[in-house]
Structures are given as structure tokens and as C-alpha cells.
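Researcher: First entry.
Model:
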Amino acid sequence: MDSILISTQNTRTINTIRHIFARDCRIQIVDSADQLFDAINVNTCDFLFIDLIQLEALSADAPHLATPKALISHFKRLRPLMAVVIIVANVDVRKAVDYVKNGASNYITAPIDAEEVRLVVDEIAKERLQQSELAYLRQQLWQDDSLDIIRTLSPIMKKVYDNVLSVAPTKTTVLLLGETGTGKSFMAKRIHRQSNRKNGPFISVHCGAIPETLIESELFGHEKGSFTGAHRRKLGKFEVASGGTIFLDEIGTISMAAQVKLLMVLQEAIFQRVGGDQTLTANVRVIAASNVDLKDMCDQGQFRKDLYYRLNVFPIHIPELCRRSEDIPLFVENFLKKFNQFGTKSIQGVHPEVMDALLGYAWPGNIRELENLLERAYILETGPVLTPENFPSELFDSSPPSGDIPIDITASLAEARKRGLAAIERRYLEELLSRNQGKINASALEAGVGARQLNKLMHKYNLQKSAFKPRHTK
């Protein structure tokens, strides 16, 4: 049941609202500032109907609530979810609009009309529902480990994402190639979510973590008594994944016997449980991944060539982090958002020295290593930005001299020029802001641009002014 608080001395207004909501809501009436704040503090309140006269009286009595913004903010601090509806005469609608601009939910005109009141309340309720649904979806994304890393500034990664979007709606087998920690598992989930099987299960199998003697049983299941310890029938991952997608990570580690069975699945869409003679149909889409060169393994006799050709229908190579360094600021921003959501801190960025080091590091562990380093620094940090003291020293030993600009000779001349100019622009802004200790107006004046333009450039390169403030010794 919703709770409605009415703050007015107008009897007609009180009676109309009470008549509309008496059956469905708990209603309380107050007619003074003291009563109003007592009611808000003591009881949960979903809707506050308050007339403009009382709002202006509140502002007059309390200097710290003298503006619409201050007053509405005060209500929100007391009851963050309370909807504030202003009751106002037609001649004062402009004043009510000012309150709405500063956080009030809506306004109604006096003398009030029952239909108008119902319409306003319904609109607020609908907006609340949409907000709650958005919050739920965001929560599900976090729980599903679906960090928003699909944004990219890297031309290489843009091609990768284009390939993912092209192949996802098909039933084609996909082979993801790349070093450990580059995001192959994330990409496999991405393909599944964009596919026609998105409502089916997504089953991930880390083949390298399963003993060779158990890999067949794990993938295809086994019958009771088929081997020592098989006390009952077990369904394999291909049965569990029916109607969905199975992701076979580190596919190069599976045994030759398992390779034969997997080849049968890919060729004929059939398989048998270990120790069984019943032929089962595999209704799954296969995505495989490898951090080693499967073709080399074929040449060395360690991997079946016919299986390799079946898996390699649509290969996607995911580049190492050092080849997409343009995206490091995006990763930093997203990981900090994630840590802030689940932690108790509010860290908004990294110190320029740290960002320089991150951009210059080789990242042998790729995205996973970056996340781990940032998480460790986040735990240790006590200020608003991550500082060099909370990162390992080898991170800074490996960074290039500040005047050097890395050049990717595999890129086109136009792309290399674009990246070089971006690197110079970023370096200039860092030096400028550092010299002016993060002061926006002074930095903008020195750069010969407006403060607004400077803020846009800082947002473009994920630069926080707090990172350039004088640092205090811990």
C-alpha cells in the first residue's frame, strides 16, 4: 500500500486527494513545516502533495533551504524515493516548473482535478517501474560478468566486433584464437547472447582443467558401470547444453579419443555416452577457443587435422592488450565502476603517472592482469584516484620515456597519424593540468581554449582533475 502525505491548508485539495486514494493508500495530512518534517522522518512516504504556499514558507523560515534546488534536495535526502508533487495556481505555474527542474516529480494546478491527479500519479508510477526494471537489468549484467568492454577505440577490435555481430545469428562453429586473458570467454558469451539460441543454456567447459581420463565423460556423459566409480548415469555437457551453446575453452588440450567423438558431433550432430550404445542427437552450437596454434599442433601430430578444419569454419583472432592500448583508459574506467559498485569507495580515476605506465606496459597477462593490478591498487588506495604507490614498481620500470610515442607499423599511415596526434594531445593535456594542479580555468586560459572545450577533451581521454591536485604524503 502506498503512503501519501498531503501538506496544505486547503480543505478542497485535501478532500479531493483523500477521495481518490482513500481505498488504496494510507493518507496523512499536515499543515505546518514542523508537522511535515516530523511525518517524513517518522513514516515511509511514497508521495508528497505540497502546495506552493507551504514550499515558499519553508524556504523563508530556513535560509539553507532558500532555493528550489536546496529544498527539493533536502526532501530527497530524507526520503530518496519520495515523489514530490507541487500544487500551484495557474498564475504561479512558472514557479512550479522551476521546482520540477530541480528534482520535483511533477505539479498539478489548483483547484485540482481528480483526473489530472490520477494521470500524474500514474506517470510517476510508470517511471518508477521503468527505473526499477533498468536497475534489475544492470544488476543481472553485473551478475552475469558482462562488463561493458564492447566499447573500443581500437580499429583492430572494431573488426573483431563486426565479425562477432556477423556470425552470431548463424549456427556456424566459431574458433576464438588469442592469448590467455584477452577475453575469449567474454566473446563467446557475446556471440551466444546475439544468437538465435540466446534463450537456451550457455555451457562453458575449461577443457584444460579436466583430467584426460575424464574429458570424454565430462563432454558426452557415461552410463552406470561403464568404468570404476561410475555408480550412476551421468549426462554430459553436450546434453546439458541442448538448445543452446557449448563453449570449449583450451580445445587443444583434449585427448585423441575425445577428438574423435567431437569430430562426430560436428560432422553428424550425434554422439554416445561412455559405455553406452544409444546414439544421441547433439542440438548445440559449438564455440571453441585456443591460446595455442592448432595448425602447428596438427603438423606435430598432436591434433586431428579433420577436427581442426571443422572447428576453423569461422576463426576470430582476439588481439593482445598491448596491440589495443587505445582501449586501456576505457578498461580502467569500467573496472573502477565495477569496483565502486561492489566496494565501499568512490575512486574516479588514476594518476597521470599511473596511466602513462599502464599505456607503456607490455601486459603479458592481458586484460586479466590489468584487472588484477587495478583491483589490488583499489584495495590499498585511500584517496579519490589510484596513485603510483599502490602499484608494483615493475609497472613503471617498463613504461617508455614520457616523450616517446608508440607507433604501430602494421597500421595505415592515416591511422598511425591519428593515433600519434591523439597521444600528443593527451600528453599535452596531462602536462598542462599537472602544471596548473588540476585548475580548469587556468589550464584553459593557458591552452587558449574555453573551459567547456577543455572539459570535453579531458572526458575524451578519461582525465580527472582530481588526479592533478597536489598529492599529500600518506
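Researcher: Second entry.
Model:
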Amino acid sequence: MTPRHSLAVLAFVLISSTAAADGDFSLGVEGHSRTEATDVGLPVYAGAVPFKDGDDDKSAVTLGAWAGKFGLKVAALKFRAATSTERVASFYAKELARYGDVLDCRDPAARVKPPKDSDRLSCDSHEPKAGDYEYRVGTARNFRVVSVRRDGEGARFDMARVDLRF
């Protein structure tokens, strides 16, 4: 089983065990590579091309699992652009701002964990490497994230939308 399949199965097991007491619910698992930028809600940087880490890799994937009102869905895409990380990062910081206040994960304040019962979004506890960028926007349960890093003379960037329902 690949890590992608493991994530979907784990989410399914966790969600279905929580929702089993509900007598009226739907149940399902989704996984495919037909993911488009519209699934994330962001445009593709001009001139960017899909990126795969290897022959067995996919440049786009959607994974989801749900049971009743509980669920998880992740849509993710990977690209490469022949331009600087700064230009790509600036483009996505502006695009993400359409959805609210953008967190810049290079800022230590963005990595402070909110209280457990808060729906406030935060970044992971690790700081992006020097010259890398990571931006997030939304809530802890429904957010978009873009990470940009140097790739030779150009930039590699990933974008995703995460939707948790519970």
C-alpha cells in the first residue's frame, strides 16, 4: 500500500468509527489524479508545467474519505516554473489574499499553535528553509496552502486545498 493509499484508509477508519453511531449517513472514499487548479481554487502560475518526482509519481491528486457529516478531502498539485521563487511566491500571496488574511509561515507568529478549541489557522511548527516560502489562508478546517522552493534556476511549487468536516 502506498503512503497516499494509507492516508485515505486511515482517514476512512478514523471517520467511520466516529460516525458509526449516526443511523443516517453516507460513506465513501475518493482517490484520483484528475485534480485541476480549480479544485484548489487557485490559478496556475503563467508558464508553469506539472511536476512529478519520478515515473511512479503524480503531479496532481485528490484524496478523500467521509462518513456522514465527518470527512476529509485534500486536493494537491505540483508544478515547476522557469522563474524566481520570489516572483512565484509573490503571485500566490496575492492570489491567496482573495480568501482572507494570508499567513506567511516564515513569520514565527504564524507558527504559534492556537488553543485546541479554536478554528484559527496556523502554520506547522517548523520554519521554511531560507529562500523557501509557505503561505496559508482559511481556517484550521478549511484552508489553502502554497509552498514555493528553489529548483535550479527556477521554482518548484505545490498548492493544496484541505477540507475537514466534523
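Model: Note on the second entry: Strands lie at 27-32, 49-50, 60-67, 70-81, 103-104, 133-138, 142-151, 154-165.
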